[in-house]
Design a protein that fits this description.
The chain has about 220 residues and is mainly alpha-helical. It contains 10 helices and 5 strands, in the order H-E-H-E-E-H-H-E-H-H-E-H-H-H-H.
Amino acid sequence: MYNVRKLAQMAAYFLHRNGGAPMEHVKLMKLMYLADREAMNIYGFPISNDEYYSMRMGPVLSLTLDLMGGNEGVEAQREWGEWVSDKENYQVSLQKKEMTESDLDELADEEISVLRKIFDSFCDWTMNRLIDYTHTLKEWIDPGSGRLPITLRSIFEALEKPAAEIEAKLKYLTTAKPNTAFSPITKSSLLSRIDNFRSVPPPYPGAYTEKLDALFSGR
């Protein structure tokens, strides 16, 4: 159901940009969530295709959290472990020390551009500052000692997208394409999805966003 390799490559990108040094797993989680949120803001769909929950320290990606904790099946943990180390002292690090962006074969260029933007914006923030910031996001609700689901709708609403656009995007994510929300989206399928809207020349993402917004608004 999920593309563990893609989740691992998202995490690996941030760890690579961190110089391969260990990073608090909570900080990494926040960067991954913010990347998904920004991808939804720009392109209308997330990168990870994970499920989201409000937890005490802010939003989390559910499967990613389990992978970080070593709580998934053997095959999933093997795939994750090729890119990201086991958690130790609440930190994880990059396994592929000689990694380059060209190794991230599950991530399209548009997705990497979002990851780059998020890292450049938040890399110097401490874990606690990121937690405090994600507590200000409108879709996060204090769950007490438990957890509460964060829906795609609530994220779009927090991004202040128009109601008609939200409905169109949710329909697109859940019914209009075979790669529905919370099922695997590989690089090849994402590129195919993006190519459907590419009738204008670069640069991206601006031109692509304009075309995608035109589609959703019916223009």
